[in-house]
Design a protein that fits this description.
- This protein is α/β, with parallel strands linked by helices and about 250 residues long.
- The chain has two domains: about 1-45, no CATH class; about 60-250, 2-Layer Sandwich (Nucleotidyltransferase, domain 5).
- It has helices at about 1-10, 25-45, 50-55, 65, 105-110, 125-130, 145-150, 155-160, 170-175, 180-190, 190-225, 235-250; strands spanning about 70-80, 80-90, 90-95, 115, 140-145.
- Helix 7 packs across helix 11 and helix 10 (about 180-190) packs antiparallel against helix 11 (about 190-225).
- The longest helix has about 35 residues, at about 190-225.
- It starts with a helix and ends with a helix.
- The mean pLDDT is about 90.
């Protein structure tokens, strides 16, 4: 409500908060100007911790334009422990696999400014913290489950994807997170097809997170009326080639 009052009063950015002239109530004006001055300082200093702590976790989506180039899109598969961790960051798409290179995950994660997950607040991040006690996640975490709940689109990732025209090939369409367990057990018994299927399933989760984050952000701008520019939506076709390379690298 307060945001909308500001927008209606012509305050659509920090630049509109001038040194003089009452915008709303006097006491609120003082806090507003003080907050804008502090925010400018922290943004210029690249201090994302300040904004991550100032905003509720469910509002971290507002930071997406500031962190999108340094964010990592992440999804894990669990089979009695972390089986695979799929990520997409500025360096590309990769799948860390237990027994191969899973221990390299914290080093890769060191440079991330933000994490984008789907339901990572209650699933991916708690599991990763237990698996890597010395790892500290980046301060900004955009959980797309919160984003799509705000858009009145409840349900899991597989339910949200078709609403935005994102589909999976037939051999992956019927799989769910619970299938990771039997796929992992099958690959342990020497089935190379099972490992490939598990990695491919995981990386489809990962690479769909980026366009969904951009589409979710743009949809929330429209829903809220926030006067901010929309984000360009990533080309899914271009990323598919990178997924194919990552699957081949993991299973070849």
């Amino acid at each position: 409500m307060r945001e909308r009052q500001l927008w209606l009063a012509g305050v659509r950015s920090w630049d509109d908060v001038t040194a003089s002239g009452e915008i709303l109530a006097h006491r609120f004006d003082e806090r507003l100007r003080e907050g804008v001055a502090q925010s400018r300082e922290h943004l210029l200093a690249g201090d994302l911790n300040y904004f991550a702590n100032a905003l509720a976790t469910t509002e971290h989506w507002r930071l997406l334009p500031q962190v999108i180039d340094g964010a990592a899109y992440l999804d894990i598969e669990w089979a009695h422990d972390v089986a695979v961790v799929g990520i997409m960051d500025a360096r590309g798409i990769h799948c860390f696999i237990r027994g191969r290179d899973l221990d390299d995950f914290p080093e890769r994660a060191r440079s991330w400014k933000a994490l984008v997950t789907f339901n990572g607040t209650v699933f991916d991040l708690p599991i990763l913290r237990r698996a890597f006690p010395s790892w500290t996640p980046p301060p900004v975490h955009i959980d797309l489950r919160h984003v799509f709940q705000k858009l009145r689109m409840p349900g899991g990732l597989k339910k949200v994807e078709p609403r935005f025209g994102l589909f999976r090939p037939p051999h992956l369409a019927q799989l769910s997170g619970t299938d990771a367990l039997w796929l992992w057990e099958a690959q342990r018994q020497g089935d190379p097809v099972a490992l490939r299927r598990l990695v491919e399933y995981n990386l489809y989760d990962v690479f769909h997170l980026k366009p969904l984050a951009e589409l979710g952000y743009n949809s929330l701008l429209k829903q809220s009326g926030m006067p901010a520019p929309e984000l360009a939506v990533s080309d899914r076709g271009a990323m598919l080639y990178d997924v194919s390379k990552a699957v081949a690298a993991a299973c070849g």
